[in-house]
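Late entry, written up from scratch paper. The run itself happened at the end of the previous shift, but nothing got recorded in the book at the time, so transcribing now.
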Amino acid sequence: MRKGSIKNTRINSEVQKELSLIIGELKDPRIDPMSTVTEVNVTADLKYCTAYISVLGDEEHGKETIAGLTSAMGFIRRELAARVNLRNTPELRFVLDKSLEYGIHMSRLIDEVIARDNGMHVPDNGNEQTD
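Output as recorded:
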């Protein structure tokens, strides 16, 4: 199975959907209720799966959510095996997805440049992040 094949895309989509449902059912207080599975990449041999998790909130909430998901990995994998009919149930790896935060930051920077070019001032709403 090739990486960009229709079958691989279909498997990624199905695993993403089921992971989202499973994570929503978890009772661990470390897992933020505003967590979303933004992308899933299952390898062609179905042995490994990288799930990108986006968490609404600060980076500390994100790290706690990833820690909670990692500790529940056995349960999540068992549930995934019961819900998705695959030859192998992939080993899971959870990665904190920061692309949404990055997009908001870049949009804010673009707005500031446009406002500066137009001679206007953009008020700071207090959500600016420092790197």
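The longest strand covers residues 35-42.
(Scratch paper discarded after transcription.)
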